């Protein structure tokens, strides 16, 4: 007996209580397709033809792949990601660039870097109770010559090249130093 279609539901009207598919119930087409595939898989003639097509390599590659996955299991995919490589490359490039600078250029960069740090301290600590950054001694206030004399090796360039660089960036664009 064919199923009778319900009358058309007016747009915007609330749904009739109890209408629609019940929770956990499969679609009609899914149920019918599973019954059909179950009947085909149980059919001896279908199994014989599938076996002969499989042995003669006449199956579609995706079908053959699926048969192998069911027979021996799907292989695990291992993905490894590492951001360490890009950081090491960037640090090597920065070290190489710093090694090319002479001592005066390194001193100028150190002074600019310290000025930026001082501005950051001043911006982060606007309270009157906290001392200004100019009152606080910073470990970065040493010049390359002072570093070289402290190390007693006279090679300040390698000391600066091994330290991470602070590129000059204007912390407050559009605002001058005098404001």
Key structural traits:
single chain, 179 residues, mainly alpha, 7 helices, 0% strand
Oligomer: single chain
In percent, how helical is the residue content? Answer: 40-55%
Give the H and E element order.
Answer: HHHHHHH
N-to-C span = 88 Å
Class by SSE composition? mainly alpha
Average pLDDT, rounded to a whole number, is 75
User: How many strand elements?
Assistant: 0
Q: Number of helical segments? A: 7
Main β sheet profile: none
- Shape label: elongated
Would you kindly provide a written description of the structure presented here, covering whatever features stand out?
Mean pLDDT is 75; it is low at 153-157. Among the domains are: 28-72, no CATH class; 103-171, no CATH class. The chain is elongated and about 100 Å long. It is mainly alpha-helical. The longest helix is centred in the middle third of the chain and has 22 residues, at 103-124. It is 51% helix and 0% strand.
List the helices and strands and how they pair.
Layout lengths: L27 H15 L1 H12 L5 H12 L11 H16 L3 H22 L19 H8 L4 H7 L17
Helix pairs in contact: 4-7, 6-7
Briefly say what this structure is:
With 179 residues, the protein is mainly α.
């Amino acid at each position: 007996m064919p199923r009778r279609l319900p009358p058309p539901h007016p747009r915007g009207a609330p749904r009739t209580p109890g209408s629609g598919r019940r929770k956990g119930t499969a679609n009609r087409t899914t149920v019918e397709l599973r019954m059909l595939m179950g009947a085909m898989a149980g059919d001896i003639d279908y199994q014989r033809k599938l076996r002969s097509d499989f042995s003669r390599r006449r199956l579609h590659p995706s079908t053959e792949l699926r048969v192998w996955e069911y027979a021996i299991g799907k292989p695990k995919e291992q993905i490894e990601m590492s951001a360490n490589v890009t950081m090491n490359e960037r640090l090597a490039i920065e070290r190489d660039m710093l090694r090319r600078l002479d001592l005066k250029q390194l001193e100028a960069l150190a002074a600019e870097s310290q000025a930026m740090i001082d501005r950051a301290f001043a911006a982060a600590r606007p309270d009157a109770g906290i001392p200004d950054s100019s009152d606080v001694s910073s470990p970065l206030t040493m010049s390359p010559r002072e570093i070289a004399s402290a190390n007693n090796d006279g090679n300040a360039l390698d000391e600066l090249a091994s330290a991470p660089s602070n590129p000059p960036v204007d912390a407050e664009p559009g605002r001058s130093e005098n404001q």
